[in-house]
Design brief:
about 130 residues; mainly alpha; Cytochrome Bc1 Complex, Chain D, domain 2; two-stranded antiparallel sheet; 6 helices; globular; binds heme C
């Protein structure tokens, strides 16, 4: 009987060790998914269309001090504000270093269309 105990103890140590060793592997996909989680629920295909027609004129090349789409360093602090803030500022427009026109200058865009185009830009610009 006495020999069984150490074996049981070793087993549980092994299992704990094993569970711990698996954690980093499990975290990697979760981190990759975090960026996409940010924009889950938005219509990125619609966002791309709206972006190309209304936002790319400035954001594709970073015209007028706009954050360039795909430039993770220009976007990381902005993305930290959260999607709601980014979308609100895009709908209302705001002036900081440069001037971001309300709805990218196209009043015909709906709130959802602006939100989708913001989501598309964030998805393109998040550090990967
Ligand atoms: C006339 C040029 C122009 C157009 C067109 C334009 N933007 Fe911008 N945008 C800017 C500038 C300039 C800034 C940066 C303002 C600053 O922070 O100094 C900006 C900033 C932003 C930001 C970052 C907001 C923040 O809080 O940091 C988002 C998001 C954004 N624009 C979304 C859009 C979307 C979506 C469209 C199209 C519907 C669009 N922009 C069209 C010029 C433009």
């Amino acid at each position: 009987m006495k020999k069984i105990l150490p074996v049981a103890a070793l087993c549980s140590i092994f299992f704990i060790g094993c569970g711990g060793a698996q954690e980093p592997a499990a975290e990697a996909p979760a981190e990759g998914g975090a960026a996409n989680e940010l924009v889950s629920g938005y219509d990125l295909a619609n966002g791309k269309e709206i972006y190309e027609a209304n936002c790319a004129s400035c954001h594709a090349e970073g015209v007028l001090s706009s954050p360039k789409t795909g430039d993770a360093s220009a976007w990381s602090a902005r993305i930290e504000q959260g999607m709601d803030t980014l979308i609100k500022k895009s709908i209302e427009g705001y002036v900081a270093e440069g001037s971001m026109p309300a709805r990218g200058g196209n009043d015909a865009l709906t709130d959802d269309e602006v939100a989708n185009s913001v989501a598309y830009m964030v998805d393109e610009s998040v550090a990967k």
